[in-house]
Write a structure and sequence with these properties.
By secondary structure, the chain is of the alpha/beta class. The protein contains 15 helices and 10 strands.
């Protein structure tokens, strides 16, 4: 990372960069995390180091406020907890996870959430939901999927999947059979837009697609072309596309793997007018090595603009890819920057 980007991360106190470098303050002789809450030093007094060992070799000592050397320990503890959660069919108590890693429950909850974007309990639920989706895909009977996904009772399975999937498990197994989706095509300054929605929110927003593509994506749902009664709703969505920086939040009804949903959440938290690299997004969700997978999750985003995957760039600052062409991505970023 170049010094300009590192200094910008320090000024933002960006926790996504904790563990990627440390900030050495030559006048005080200490080194800190990028997110350290202490008053910012003068830029002329700052030098960046790859890690605490390099800073100590230069004669600096660790900050007692932000404890930069604990970053690696925290990351190791979180990875160990993730392995434990993945290796157990039954939910693990927060106190047990924390004790295994040598932390108090409250502190471990904070560092786990900071690294993954989810609490340990929410991570476990997301993992079980992902397993349930996979099991529903490969098993002929829902009851087999229930136990393969790690649920010890049908009631727990139905309670979890009802909220996550938006339909009962049998309907999900059959490709969304029985779900009502309304759709329409409308003109925008970025091209013709297809928008589709359920009673929970927008489930598809794309450019230059038609109803046939929607039918491929939702093969067993009831697809109904919207009439004039939906004009106000559609106009609100169009306004959000035309002026993404100023648009109000529009509910979405999208589902992906636990990893994809974590990436989409991180994308939705990027302020309008700002961008993040794929590496920054990977760090933000606690998976710093999964840069390419983050790019794939951005490409799988089913609702363009509403989940702002156009704000994701390559680490060198170039645009990277975009499902609907770099012209649209460039224009969206330009509108947000104006």
């Amino acid at each position: 990372m170049d010094d300009t980007a590192a200094w910008a991360a320090v000024l933002r106190r960006d926790r996504a960069y904790d563990g990627r470098f440390v900030t050495g303050v030559l006048t005080t002789g200490i080194y800190c995390r990028p997110s350290c809450a202490a008053r910012h030093p003068a830029r002329a007094n700052v030098r960046f180091f790859a890690d605490g060992a390099a800073a100590r070799a230069a004669g600096l000592r660790a900050c007692k406020r932000c404890l930069p050397d604990d970053v690696a320990r925290d990351a190791t503890a979180v990875l160990a907890a993730i392995e434990a959660i993945r290796g157990n069919q039954e939910p693990l108590a927060l106190s047990a996870l924390a004790a295994e890693c040598g932390y108090s429950p409250a502190h471990f909850q904070r560092i786990f959430s900071r690294h993954t974007g989810l609490s340990p309990a929410a991570y476990a639920r997301a993992l079980r939901t992902e397993r349930a989706r996979e099991a529903l895909t490969i098993n002929d009977r829902v009851v087999d999927a229930i136990y393969e996904a790690g649920f010890n009772a049908p009631s727990r399975f139905y309670g979890t999947m009802k909220g996550r999937i938006g339909m009962d498990p049998s309907a999900w197994k059959n490709g969304g059979q029985g779900v009502d989706i309304h759709w329409t095509k409308t003109d925008t300054s970025l091209g013709q837009m297809l928008v589709a929605w359920t009673d929970k929110g927008v489930c598809r927003l794309s450019f230059n697609e038609d109803a046939q593509a929607l039918a491929v994506r939702f093969p067993a749902a009831r697809l109904t072309e919207a009439g004039d009664d939906a004009a106000t709703y559609v106009a609100r969505i169009v306004a959000g596309v035309e002026a993404p920086a100023a648009s109000a939040a529009i509910p979405v009804d999208v589902r992906g793997t636990a990893f994809q949903e974590a990436v989409w959440k991180a994308l939705s938290e990027i302020p309008a007018g700002e961008t993040r690299s794929y590496a920054q997004l990977a760090a933000a969700i606690g998976r710093p090595a999964a840069v390419r997978a983050v790019g794939s999750a951005c490409g799988a985003n089913p609702v363009a603009v509403l989940i702002p995957c156009h704000r994701a760039l390559r680490s060198d600052g170039t645009l990277g890819g975009y499902a609907y062409g770099l012209g649209i991505k460039t224009e969206l970023l330009k509108r947000e920057a104006d």
